[in-house]
């Protein structure tokens, strides 16, 4: 019960000079405890967002490199020699130019299936928290298409 003090007259009013600490009761320090409990969750969400962003950017690097490597592989011609080395070299140059640190342990493989050629790239994304090796994000990208066949304009059906 709030102590009452007398004023001039018959009405009594509550004493507002009581210390604020007693008015709050047991709520002192609750904000600090709530913040201490909430901050790890907030920090984990922020780090997860950064990790997904790095994975996505690494995927873009792998896609660009595989696409360029597949372009070289497809345009080499049907009976061309050494298209594999050219496609791998082009993909490596793209990775080095665009994001060498965004796609780690990149493995570049060429493939050929009938009249289809392409490049497949596999690697891992940069880790935000390197102390957790089981949380590696693998990136894989595969691009390819039919081998381009340049036919002469003399009516023959042979690729040249």
Q: What is the SS-derived class?
A: alpha+beta
Strand content of the residues, in percent?
15-25%
Oligomeric grouping of the chains: single chain
Q: What's the shape?
A: rod-shaped
List how many beta strands DSSP finds: 5
The sequence of SSEs as H and E is EEHHHEEE
Q: How many domain modules?
A: 1
**Unreliable sequence segments:** none
* Share of residues in helices: 40-55%
Roughly how many Å apart are the termini? 102 Å
Largest sheet: 3 strands, antiparallel
Taking all Cα atoms into account, the compactness measure Rg is 34 Å
Number of helices: 3
Strand order of the largest sheet: 3-4-5
The residue-averaged pLDDT reads 83
Please explain how this structure is put together.
The chain is rod-shaped, with a radius of gyration of 34 Å. The N and C termini lie far apart (102 Å). The chain has one domain. It has three helices and five strands; from the N terminus they run E-E-H-H-H-E-E-E. The model has no long low-confidence stretch (mean pLDDT 83). The chain is α+β, with helices and mostly antiparallel strands. It has a three-stranded antiparallel sheet with strand order 3-4-5, with helices on one face. The chain has a two-stranded antiparallel ribbon with strand order 1-2.
């Amino acid at each position: 019960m709030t102590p009452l003090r007398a004023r001039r007259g018959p009405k009594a009013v509550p004493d507002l000079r009581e210390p604020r600490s007693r008015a709050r009761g047991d709520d002192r320090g609750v904000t600090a405890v709530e913040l201490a409990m909430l901050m790890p969750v907030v920090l984990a969400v922020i780090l997860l967002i950064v990790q997904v962003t790095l994975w996505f950017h690494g995927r873009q690097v792998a896609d660009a490199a595989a696409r360029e490597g597949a372009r070289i592989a497809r345009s080499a011609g049907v009976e061309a020699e050494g298209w594999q080395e050219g496609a791998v070299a082009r993909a490596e140059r793209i990775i080095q130019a665009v994001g060498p640190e965004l796609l780690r342990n990149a493995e570049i493989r060429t493939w050929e299936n009938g009249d289809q050629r392409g490049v497949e790239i596999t690697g891992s994304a940069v880790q935000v928290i390197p102390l957790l090796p089981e949380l590696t994000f693998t990136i894989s990208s595969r691009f390819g298409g039919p081998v381009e066949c340049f036919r002469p304009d003399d009516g023959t059906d042979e690729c040249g």
